[in-house]
Amino acid sequence: MEFDKVMFGRRSIRGYKPDPVPRALIEEIIGLAMRAPSSMNTQPWNFYVVTGEPLERIRRGNTERMAGGVPQSREFRTGQPFAGVHRERQVGVAKQLFAAMGIARDDQAMRQEWVMRGFRQFDAPVCIIVTYDRVLDGSDDTPFDCGAVTTALVLAAWSRGLGCVINSQGIMQSPVVREHAGIADDQVIMKSVALGWPDETFPANAVVSERKSVAEAAVFVGFNA
Hints:
Elements: H1 3-9, H2 23-33, E1 45-51, H3 52-67, H4 84-101, H5 108-119, E2 126-133, H6 141-159, E3 163-167, H7 174-181, E4 187-196, H8 214-217
Antiparallel strand pairs: 1-2, 2-4, 3-4
Helix pairs in contact: 2-6, 3-7
């Protein structure tokens, strides 16, 4: 698939077919993604690819603990709550998704179910947990590099007909994730990616989130025009 078509066609997928994804295809996608650049070629990333019963155990543990009021224990810094234009963009895409799904503003049951879907990795057949080497913890280069490889991964998946959504709701309870994914102690959990074959009948999958313009995002210095 041409690069422009991948970039403009890709969207976050939150509804999946139950069909399994072949391991060989996932290996191919990860191999492509690891051509992403990293600081001084450190390649700090690792991938724990989970499916089947281990993934179901992560889903159950994550949802049960969150529903039971256990504080989240994600291993990356989230910073302060969004405000200003960043909060507006967050609310904007939520409105797009809720409109597509027919979730009314006052429908608390449906809104809660949407949150729980996130805790379940959107019921995708595969979860790829992106980790980095703990020895590099504290370097801003390391999560930057993980972002690069994760972006490459979702683009590579899309080019092969698969959908993804980068998701941190599915790793809210890191002890559960560590136990059932067998994540080594020398790794820090960065993000998770839900992956599978898109369900084209799922309304939210048609949502294309808005982007600010190049004029808003870029500053050009030293150009004649």
